Amino acid sequence: MSRFSQRVESLPPYLFAEIERKVAAKRATGVDIISLGIGDPDTPTPAHIVEAMNEAIHDPKTHQYPTNKGTAEFRQAVAGYYERRFGVDVDPETEVIPLLGAKEAIAHICLALLNESDVCLSADPGYPVYTTGPLIAGGTAVHVPLRPELGFQPDLEAIEPSALARAKMIFVGYPNNPTGAVIEDDFFARLVAFGREHDLVVIHDNAYADITFDGYVAPSFLETPGAKDVGVEFFSLSKSYNMTGWRAGAIVGNRDVVDAFWRLKTNMDSGMFAALQHASAVALNGPQDSVRALCAMYAHRRDLLVPALQRIGLQARPPKGSIYLWAPVPAGHTSGSFADLVLDQADVIVSPGAAYGPSGEGYVRFSLTVPDARLEEAVRRIEERVRL
Ligand SMILES: Cc1ncc(COP(=O)(O)O)c(C=O)c1O
User: Fold this and answer.
1) Which is more confidently placed, 10 or 58?
2) Residue 327's beta-bridge partner residues?
3) Contact 152, 146 (CB under 8 A)
4) What is the mean pLDDT of the chain?
């Protein structure tokens, strides 16, 4: 059929299709499958946030079209959070806009920045929309490999000059999905200088800002001197407050980029539900002990899983952030064949690293978002049943 656009036809095939087919077939015969595939928090949104939503939803004023720019309450809450959490001064009038989750923003910012033949430098492995977003916008995504020997940072000096000459933007994010890597050196300062030198808009995806362990506190890219001159950050409430289903986040940073993004967005959607803007403000302004409890829970799960994987011969290292474990597959396996093996032998779903880009080949990702008892069961099955 030729009725679909080239942009839709050019989207890569869905890499989990084969896994989903197998899972459906197994489940149909009554097999109990444990999914460590998708990273979707299994515990509920904190009660005080649900309560704030409940109150706001009964106010008819929230039932009308919201403003795309966001309510003053929401924008001030984001600015207040950035000030308290990162010591970053943000102008709530010009440097913040609400997002319907970071995902739409990753796709839409490409439409605001790229012309045909422009390049987006996309962290590889990376969140898949870092490469499909540029494609949808008619541009080209050039993979920038995250190097294990550099702590899963890209080697900025190694980027192909011809790609760099056409590049308008770069996507990176730490704490990182899928590798769990965090930034502990001057990478952000080098990124600011790099953005300046090559006239790039730096997009830092801060979806896991507050999910960190062992006393590590993740910085915002915007803490780096000069960062606001070259880029923006996407902040998401999804993981910090177990709000993946609510669709709430914010773009924060360079006012020209924020403005261009806003001009685009007013033509794409009609803003974030006003009641949700209020609930999000309550999440950001309110007590943060639920975030600390979440981190403790994920750290506990990480500490269950890492030794079990090591016992079956996987060189898993405990990450300091994110909700994922990233481990090299055993010799003789691809990421896909090992994910298949674990599903076939242990009835446990893990994500093949190649789903996150070519540099993800040779790895698998385990998500920590299942209850402890299920994770323990997954660990037991992997240890007892997986034969390499
Ligand atoms: C790196 C990264 N960015 C963005 C997102 C999407 O976040 P949101 O739920 O705010 O759309 C995810 C979700 O898993 C992610 O891992």
Assistant:
1) 58
2) 364
3) yes
4) 96
Residues 71-97: tens digit of each pLDDT = 999 999 999 999 999 999 999 999 999
* The pTM of the whole model exceeds 0.90: yes
The one-character DSSP state at 223 is G
Q: List the one residue out of 110, 111, 115 whose CA is nearest residue 130.
A: 110
Among 100, 106, 171, 177, the mutation site with the greatest number of ligand 1 atoms within 8 A of its Cβ is: 177
Phi, psi of 88 (to 5 degrees): -105, 130
Task: For the chain, give the percent of residues with pLDDT over 90.
Answer: 91
Tokens standing for 102?
């970071």
Q: Which residues contact 287 (CB under 8 A, 6 or more apart)?
A: 48
Radius of gyration for the alpha carbons in the chain, expressed in angstroms and rounded: 21
CA 29 – ligand 1 centroid, Å: 33
Confidence of residue 1 (pLDDT cuts 50, 70, 90): low
Average pLDDT of the residues in 222-235: 98
DSSP letter for 240, please: T
For the residues 27-53, what does the mean pLDDT come to? 95
**What is the amino acid identity at position 383?**
E
Average pLDDT over residues 188-213: 98
- How does DSSP classify residue 321? B
335-346 and 17-28 helices cross at what angle (nearest 10)?
10
- Other C-beta atoms lying within 10 Å of the C-beta of residue 6: 8
Q: What whole-number distance in Å separates Cα of residue 340 and Cα of residue 263?
A: 45
With 80 as the cut, is the pLDDT of residue 203 above it? Answer: yes
Residues lining ligand 1, Cβ inside 6 A: 39, 101-103, 127, 173, 177, 205, 207, 236, 238, 244, 249
If you average pLDDT over residues 327-352, what whole number do you get? 95
Q: What is the mean pLDDT of residues 258-267?
A: 97
Strand, helix or coil at 185?
A: coil
Burial label for 198, CB within 10 Å (0-12, 13-18, 19+), is middle
| CB 248 within 8 Å of CB 40 | no
Going by DSSP bridges, is the β-strand pair 363-367/231-236 parallel, antiparallel, or unpaired? unpaired
Backbone angles phi, psi at 181, to 5 degrees: -70, 150
